[in-house]
Structure prediction request, 155 residues.
Amino acid sequence: PPQPPAPAPQPTAPKLPSYTAYDRNDLLISLTPQTSPAKPGVVNILARFQVKNGTPVTGLNFQVAVPKTQQLQMLPMSHPDVNPGKTETQQMRVMAPVGVSISSSCRHFHRTHEIFVGQSSIRLRLRISYSVAGRAVQDQVDFSGFPPGLTSGSS
Prediction:
């Protein structure tokens, strides 16, 4: 009997790069930014929380601050306790001034180059508190590891 036609392959979403923002006391926090050309200046960021050994992290409190030129919205964390083998998440959105792209005709640049004027880079100050193995930890780190151009509206 004839075989039914194979289902068409589903397009897979492109794998978004992840950036390590925090890696201490067996707690790993990675940030995955996502932009949309339809919403320049808006960067959605997924924070992922994982433990790197068998000791759970409890009572995790994750706070983020951005420069005054940017705005931040955060959704609640999926769960404040991070157990081995599990990944907890938290969504946030940063609204930043949009970079204005202009083509350069200056002789110092090749004509195909673009310059981003007034473009803001995403800078985050992370305040993290949690308990691991009965020990309370409070930490603060500055993160600016996203590639430039996230706020320009191109993905």
